[in-house]
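Example 375.
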Amino acid sequence: MSALALLILIIAVVAVLLVGTVVGFLVRGRKPAPLPNTHTDVIVTPPPATDADTDAPPVEVSAPPATIERPEPTATRLVRLRQRLAGAQGGFGRGLLALLSRDRLDEDTWESIEDVLLTADLGVQPTQQVVEGLRTRLRVEGRPEDARTALREELVKIVDPSMDRRLQVSGADGKPGVVLVVGVNGTGKTTTVGKLARILVAEDRRVTLGAADTFRAAAVDQLATWGDRVGVEVVRGAEATDPASVAFDAVKHGVDDGVDTVIIDTAGRLQNKAGLMDELGKVKRVIEKQAPVTEVLLVIDATTGQNGLIQARVFSEVVDVTGVVLTKLDGSAKGGIVVSVQRELGVPVKLVGLGEGPDDLAPFDAEAFVDALLG
Ligand SMILES: Nc1nc2c(ncn2[C@@H]2O[C@H](COP(=O)(O)OP(=O)(O)OP(=O)(O)O)[C@@H](O)[C@H]2O)c(=O)[nH]1
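Predicted structure in complex with guanosine-5'-triphosphate:
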């Protein structure tokens, strides 16, 4: 091949390659641009998620347990716990009775009586009321009234037996009752939810628990254990799930399942009032899309005295509290806190915690409480 023929061949090959590149470029350039992501009228529902689709489903319902405990009936637990209450509070009652039984009730004695009442966290105003009542009754010349009877009656009056202490655990229109449990962390909320479930199970009620204390992962596991022991389902979310979404799912589950009562445990950290109001307000709002909240129980630790009461007051300002659970009364000699709590918050003490055992929660009764105080 001559040099000229070789040159023509090279030019031809280069020309073919150039034409191919330009045509390819033009074809790509003309390709239609993707459509903007516009609204569509047709919503395709994805197939329901299966267990294989998600490693950690947002909400879980606990599996039924292998063995189920039978909780202690309410009646016998009251008798047993009254003895424990008397053990913790007896000193206070005995001290008062000893002072009131003196031959002469002089001013020093009345002052000592006042001190005993104040030391038991009864509060200033109720203390004055009790002392005034006793002074009037025991001043009578001739046949003075029995000191024990007078003290018992004055204390019962101050604890107020006329308050409605029934727990609203039933709903209306075929819906479950919903109990929301709130309070400062560490007061015993999760424990109380577990114990309350046992009281209801002992009364043959069907219960669902909602573990909306997603702030503390251990609280969710703790509640699941309480539920498992008595065959109660616990609806729980993954760690740090929105508490309101867990509460919603728990109540929905309870409604769909036709249970009698749903109890919701909350975290309710007390960082500031606005944050607390947002969190508990939202929990309550979303629950009420399913069923009305029938009872809001505020848990207060009796051993924290007046300080605990100040913190509790913030909760009562952000949610409409309907009853108080006073825990750890077994570890405090200051039973007078019952009266301070009721006066401060204007709601009755409905339940008292008297130990760490599973059945150590009892309905509160004014007369039985005072009898235990007097030993
Ligand atoms: N002695 C006694 N201990 C109690 C009583 N109620 C609860 N406790 C104990 O108090 C501790 C705290 O209880 P929790 O139920 O974990 O408290 P909580 O309010 O849920 O705490 P957070 O989840 O941190 O908000 C636990 O060790 C309970 O066993 C009671 O009536 N008596």
